[in-house]
Design a protein that fits this description.
It is found in: Cytoplasm. By secondary structure, the protein is of the alpha+beta class. Helices cover 28% and strands 28% of the residues.
């Protein structure tokens, strides 16, 4: 990247990879009085791309040549003046994932530490001479006299990092194999981006520019800074290479209060919140394990004027008034990490600290959060780590760890929970606990993998990285707590800076595109096959065509296959068992799909949790439209300790329509209705996708699996009614049907009428229901449910002739009405609009162009459709938009409120006596006379 100063008018131009962006402050650009008043408060910067021919000394541009620029940090406003921030010094410190070539490590994903930054004024040339010559005197003036001197010191303190190759704000399990800027912007955790305020307008501007400009812009013009610690160390394992990467991300969610020594705020945020991740990479495996720590999440403060390490905490609100905020804090953590286990490190050495610790336990117990009290000092923890690990062992097993087999391309293990660690005024004790847990997890995981041993050299590097991490985090914490007033002022300026980017040309193009959205979007129907099968731990010994192709000769656009009991599991394992069966099953399904018709299919995503597997297969013609694929898992078996029960879920977008598919295996047993209900609630609560997307935040949901609900009738009567095909009588006593009618489980889900025999339990290899000593009552344990106005179910059945399991496979066929964006048409239309606007503005001056663009509204009277590229092959010749109901609103997505406004509705209804009326239609806008709530019967009270 190169930087130029424009003199008349004053501007800053950044040039990278042949792309030149000009930044210039402007005044009075708004088209109406209200906008003008707003711009007085919010300064405006004009941004536009210029050609190399314009960027010359003859045109008044002078290059600053003695600086090596490493990217744009963003735009900042300081006391009314505007500055362009650029990175001018970096050091490569991390490479979490790599390839081995000729015995050496080859890196494509690199992390850099920021060593220096510069701030160039858009208002005055006073400081320009300080950048023309590198000297100690000039550097002193830039740090002490320049208006951004405090920011220069802040961003150059060795705790800020960035990457050009992947999203640095998220743990490794959230990463895809291929990086893209769109993915990073959509999925990054903004709480860990410290320059978010400086790049927000750049992100908005990027969304309006053409694709070819984005490719240039995404190089060095958009940088996201993480704060904390990041370092990778190579370990020579004699026969192979390994790296250990340690990452600590300091949250910026509390903004100016990020390092305060106090408790929670009303939004559930705490200061000193740090996410720490250990990543181990070998040529065969990638491990990742995450822990979090932060201040005690209660309302408390310390007295001013006392010695730093003599401060005493004091609760400022009662626990009753704290509980709702406490719950919000843990709900936020659970939405990202899964199950949360609190570790309380407060030592009750004083009455005030004891009161803080007791309050923590009271609120945790009320919330149902497991809390472990550990009052050992760091020295004792290090000398007797077994005492700590004994207390945490159950959670360590339950949570598991992320392990990815690089050769097979499968996840062997997933982390489904997190330790939330708290201490009072201490960085050392949380760091010690995290180091010991990290070491234990890695040893447990590698014990279950053949050919991988943790050596003494490995452990030395591991512990040395944790020591460096402690040094940098403690140094940052101490520096801020010694001068809280000074740093709070810096953070207030950093997080309150506001700048509006003025880009009338692209804004006008975006306006015209919005007006003509109907010309490049259309509705179409796609067909989906959903199938679920409990395999009883067996591999298929027969053809599966009668299940996958229930209607001979018909092929669907998409197949989603859920399998349960893929393999028998043993309890108490750190990792899932036999994950390589996933590849085997992918080949089995693909061989059926690609061997029975003209259409060809690929598998864009599959995942396995223990014995539960979910796979998606998409036809080649539809493959390009399936994007943003993300998965999640949740264990529920044996109290969460193993993966014999639980769920696997996937979220993705088909063009502009969002889908969620799930397969789950719920608790078994005739009397276990309540446990199955709890399993359902646990899955709904804990399945989360990036950006905290939940199951219900999708347009279409298909949930299938072995739900294990039984029929509450005598065995002989059930078997008689099956022979007589009187499914209606059986369905009345079906537990899932009764639960759904009562509004207890799967509310607002639909199930098509069942017209097939119960699918469980058979003597394997026969069509005879269970003749063992247990003589289980036949039941429809295997089900497929759906939710979403865009879905229409066509069929529901089973394949009775596939006999190797004690279950029968079940299938359902759907059509889904999806909204498709024709990107080719949109790009062509954008180019056409640009050319027409440029043609209209070609003969007028620069000032007149700004005036015309500022006026707003249309600049083009009509579009000559013949001059715009035709729509794609799969678009209908004429398309009429059919309005469908959006997915239910939630805290994340509220379609009736704009600008991210919060909404909270309190219903004065006793849930023990009343429930949502199941007779009301799912669409709340349909006219109906049914009451919203009805009284529960005694059976459900």
């Amino acid at each position: 990247m190169r930087i130029f100063i424009g003199r008349n008018p004053r501007s800053i131009v950044l040039s990278s990879n042949g792309y030149n962006l000009s930044f210039r402050r402007i005044f009075g650009v708004s088209g109406n009085q209200q906008q003008q008043q707003q711009n007085i408060k919010t300064p405006v910067v004009a941004l536009k791309a210029i050609s190399d021919q314009e960027l010359t000394e003859e045109n008044g541009y002078i290059e600053i040549k003695n600086r090596i620029l490493n990217g744009l940090l963003g735009l900042i406003s300081v006391n009314g003046d505007l500055f362009v921030a650029v990175i001018t010094g970096v050091q490569k410190v991390g490479f979490p994932r790599w390839q081995q070539e000729d015995g050496h490590i080859s890196t494509t994903e690199n992390v850099y530490k920021v060593l220096d930054v510069d701030f160039h004024s858009l208002d005055t040339p006073i400081f320009d001479n300080l950048f023309q010559e590198i000297s100690e005197q000039n550097y002193e003036k830039l740090t002490n006299e320049h208006p951004c001197g405090a920011f220069k010191k802040l961003f150059s303190d060795g705790t800020f990092y960035f990457s050009r190759n992947f999203d640095i704000s998220n743990v490794l399990k959230s990463h895809v194999l291929a990086h893209s800027m769109d993915y990073t912007i959509d999925n990054q955790d903004k709480n860990f981006i410290w320059n978010s305020n400086l790049v927000t307008e750049l992100i908005n501007w990027r969304s309006r520019i053409p694709v070819e400009e984005k490719q240039c812009f995404d190089g060095e013009f958009l940088t996201f800074l993480m704060r904390g610690f990041y370092k990778t160390q190579v370990v020579d394992m004699v026969d192979s290479l390994a790296t250990i990467t340690l990452v600590s991300r300091i949250s910026a969610e509390s903004k100016q209060n990020a390092f305060d020594l106090n408790g929670i705020d009303e939004d559930g945020r705490v200061s000193n919140f740090i996410e720490t991740e250990i990543i181990v990479t070998t040529s065969n495996f990638i491990f990742s394990y995450t822990q979090v720590n932060g201040n005690v999440p209660l309302f408390w403060e310390t007295s001013e004027g006392q010695l730093l390490y003599g401060r005493k905490p004091k609760l400022t609100k009662s626990l009753e008034h704290t509980q709702a905020t406490f719950d919000r804090h843990f709900d936020n953590i659970a939405s990202k990490y899964g199950v949360v286990s609190a570790v309380n490190l407060i030592k009750p050495k004083s009455e005030s600290q004891e009161s803080l610790g007791n309050g923590y336990k009271t609120c945790a117990d009320s919330k149902g959060i497991k809390i472990t009290n550990v009052d050992y000092g760091s020295g004792l923890l290090t000398k007797t780590p077994h005492k700590l690990l004994y207390l945490l062992k159950q959670d360590i097993y339950e949570f598991g760890t992320v392990v990815y087999n690089r050769d097979k391309g499968v996840y062997i293990g997933k982390q489904t929970g997190v330790f939330r660690i708290s201490a009072f005024d201490s960085i050392e004790r949380p760091n010690t606990v995290e180091r010991l847990v990290s070491r234990e997890v890695l040893e447990l995981a590698t014990n279950e993998l053949s050919g991988l041993d943790i050596t003494t050299a490995f452990l030395k590097v591991h512990d040395r990285l944790w020591s460096e991490n402690y040094y940098w985090i403690e140094r940052t914490y101490s520096k801020n707590t010694r001068n809280p007033g000074k740093y709070k002022k810096i953070y207030i300026k950093l997080f309150s800076s506001k700048i509006k980017l003025y880009d009338p040309l692209h804004s006008t193009i975006a306006y015209h595109l919005r007006q003509r959205r109907s010309t490049y979007t259309f509705e179409r129907n796609i067909s989906i096959f959903a199938g679920t099968f409990n395999l009883s731990g067996k591999l298929p010994a027969e053809d599966l065509s009668s299940w996958i192709f229930p209607e001979a000769g018909r092929q669907e656009d998409m197949y989603v296959i859920g399998l349960e009991e893929v393999v028998e599991l043993t309890p108490g394992r750190m990792l899932t068992a036999d994950p390589y069966l996933k590849q085997h099953w992918e080949k089995i399904i693909l061989s059926h799909l690609n061997g029975s018709g003209e259409r060809k299919y690929g598998c864009p995503w599959s995942s396995q949790l223990g014995a539960i597997m979910l796979m998606i297969f998409v036809s080649e013609t539809q493959y390009p439209r399936v994007k943003h694929i993300e998965g999640d898992v949740k264990k529920t078996g044996f109290g969460g300790m193993t993966s014999n029960k639980g769920a696997v879920a996937v979220s993705f977008k088909y063009s502009a329509t969002r889908f969620c598919f799930l397969v789950s295996h719920l608790a078994a047993g005739l009397e276990n209705v309540e446990q199955r209900h709890n399993d359902y609630k646990t899955i709904v609560k804990n399945i989360r996708f990036p950006s905290s997307l939940r199951i219900r935040d999708h347009d279409a949901i298909i949930w299938m699996g072995d739900f294990n609900y039984r029929i509450l009738m005598p065995n002989e009567e059930v078997r008689r009614l099956i022979v007589e095909k009187k499914y209606g009588y059986l369905f009345e006593k079906d537990q899932l049907n009764q639960q759904m009618i009562a509004g207890e489980a799967f509310p607002y889900y639909n199930e098509m009428e069942i017209n097939f025999d119960p699918t469980y339990k058979f003597d394997p290899g026969t069509k005879i229901y269970d003749t063992s000593e247990k003589m289980r009552i036949p039941a429809w344990t295997d089900r497929i449910l759906s939710r979403g106005e865009v879905l229409k179910q066509l069929t529901y059945g089973c394949a009775p002739d596939i006999l190797f399991s004690d279950h029968r496979p079940v299938y359902a066929a759907f059509t889904a009405q999806v909204t498709v964006i024709d990107e080719q048409k949109k790009t062509a239309l954008s180019s056409y609009i640009y050319s027409k606007i440029a043609e209209k503005l070609a003969t007028i001056s620069e000032e007149e162009k700004i005036a015309v663009l500022n006026a707003g509204g249309p600049l083009i009277d009509g579009i000559d459709e013949e001059n715009v590229n035709t729509v794609s092959d799969d678009a209908p010749s004429s398309s009429k938009h059919k309005k469908v109901l959006k997915p239910p609103s939630s805290d994340l997505r509220r379609w009736w409120l704009g600008n991210g406004k919060q909404v909270k509705v309190v219903l004065d209804v006793n849930p023990k006596q009343y429930m949502v009326n199941p007779k009301r239609p799912a669409n709340p806008f349909m006219e109906n006379k049914e009451p919203l709530f009805v009284q529960k019967s005694n059976h459900h009270t």
